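Here is the promised in-class demo. Please do not try to memorize the tokens; focus on the logic of going from shape to residues.
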């Protein structure tokens, strides 16, 4: 009988097997869903877990924004966009230059009390793509950590270290985990460590898949957000509330932000199409099994599911008093 590592429950826990679908690697992995808090948990973590993060293929190691020239005209324009969209410095230039600008992380950053000089830590940052984007938009004090990168990266005030969260000693004005918390064992100890790394009256942002999901009910073990065996925990709103309270945090806000990925990737997995295959929607949209109309429908449906708190992904804003 499996015991939930979050709430301690032993009753009505449902066990099931999941295959690795992103790369089609061998093996099947046993999970269970807690009958009380509904957190989904991997029962036995593979001893070779690093093998499931191949540096040449895993998406978070693909650098796109590492060429930085803060003095360039393009980056000066980006900073004006940041002033307008994040820090609400309203002027005509900002309005004009921000037309059509869409950066999802702007919405996260404008909800927390930071500025361009704030010390920011990205936990599980991969190759640092997000940090380099932020640097190009004017942020100056950026740190990242990831145990699976090949070596440290230091480029123009962006410092990324090959290390675990428990190796970090500095404190920060803002910490974010963008789809990395689900990859980490001992979630309560991790959250307590993050509490210690955060300065008082500051925020921790955790973005994760959550089991409060229509797609989990619809696709079962083919649900793309399971991502076995890399995802050790798929939390629920309830399990996050339990952990946050135990760690000393106050949850200030929960925003559901599921995307069409949960539909099209899950549909591919049902058909035996890996995420990295030539006919995967991620690799080649024209060769994929989906029409533009289907993708639009998935996007509209996901918007409705997010409004119902069933989108399967969420942002948790945790506050340290």
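The designed amino acids, position by position:
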């Amino acid at each position: 009988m499996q015991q939930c590592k979050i709430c301690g429950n032993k009753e009505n826990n449902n066990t099931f097997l999941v295959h690795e679908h992103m790369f089609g690697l061998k093996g099947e992995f046993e999970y269970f869903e807690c009958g009380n808090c509904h957190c989904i948990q991997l029962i036995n973590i593979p001893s070779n877990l690093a093998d499931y993060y191949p540096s040449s293929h895993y998406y978070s190691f693909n650098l796109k924004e590492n060429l930085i020239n803060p003095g360039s005209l393009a980056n000066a324009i980006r900073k004006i966009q940041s002033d307008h969209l994040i820090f609400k410095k309203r002027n005509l230039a900002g309005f004009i230059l921000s037309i059509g600008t869409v950066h999802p992380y702007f919405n996260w950053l404008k909800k927390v009390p930071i500025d361009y000089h704030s010390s920011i830590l990205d936990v599980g940052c991969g190759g640092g793509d997000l940090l380099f984007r932020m640097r190009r938009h004017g942020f100056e004090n950026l740190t990242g950590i990831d145990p699976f990168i090949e070596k440290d990266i230091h480029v123009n005030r962006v410092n990324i270290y090959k290390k675990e969260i428990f190796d970090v000693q500095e404190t920060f004005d803002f910490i974010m985990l963008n789809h990395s918390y689900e990859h980490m064992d001992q979630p309560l100890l991790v959250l307590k460590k993050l509490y210690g790394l955060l300065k008082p009256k500051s925020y921790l942002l955790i973005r994760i898949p959550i089991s409060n999901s229509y797609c989990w009910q619809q696709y079962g073990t083919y649900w793309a957000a399971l991502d076995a065996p890399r995802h050790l925990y798929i939390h629920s709103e309830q399990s996050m509330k339990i952990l946050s309270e135990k760690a000393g945090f106050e949850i200030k806000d929960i925003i559901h932000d599921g995307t069409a990925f949960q539909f099209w990737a899950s549909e591919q997995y049902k058909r035996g199409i890996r995420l990295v295959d030539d006919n995967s929607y991620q690799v080649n949209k024209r060769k994929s099994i989906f029409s533009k109309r289907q993708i639009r429908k998935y996007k509209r449906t996901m918007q409705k599911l997010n409004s119902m708190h069933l989108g399967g992904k969420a942002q948790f804003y945790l506050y340290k008093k």
